[in-house]
Amino acid sequence: MHDQGEAPEASPARTADDQPLQQGHPNHRKAMRVQAAMLAVPLLFGAIAAEYATALPNFVILAPVALILLWLVMFLPHRRYAARGHAMSEDRLRVVRGILFHSDTVVPFGRVQHIDVDRGPIERYYGLATLQLYTAGSHGDVVSLPGLAHEDALEMRETIRAHIKRDSL
Hints:
This protein is of the alpha+beta class. Helix 1 (27-53) packs antiparallel against helix 2 and helix 1 packs antiparallel against helix 3. The two termini are 42 Å apart. 43% of the residues lie in helices and 23% in strands. A three-stranded antiparallel sheet has the order 1-2-3. Strands 4-5-6 form a three-stranded antiparallel sheet. A hairpin with a 3-residue loop joins strand 1 and strand 2. The protein is built from five helices and six strands; from the N terminus they run H-H-H-E-E-E-E-H-E-E-H. The longest helix has 27 residues, at 27-53.
């Protein structure tokens, strides 16, 4: 308890471990759906070809494949989006991902060797980018953070770069 005239205690700097996680840009769900649809279309054509090539009753192959692909395109991207998050503090980046296999990675900026901001055609269309951190060491030497707004990815890259430059002086 604080007395009325007493100043509150200064809280210690928050680390990435105790910050609330931020999710990627909402367009990331749409981009993941487009990528899933690009995977699903050839599989659907394969199921149609298999349906006509066999003597099985109608839709024995096509119906289950179509339902699985519908789930892949409509529901899985939303689940993947909800299972991802990141938090950046003054000296580290935390990246959390995974539905079935959960991964919680903390990258201290002092371990970062170089940083890339990548954009494929689907990401460019939706104004997104992927921030990639290359770290020292062999295990987990590349940490990717997809689904960021392009401007946010550039800002995060510059913040990390400034921290690295400050530490190397």
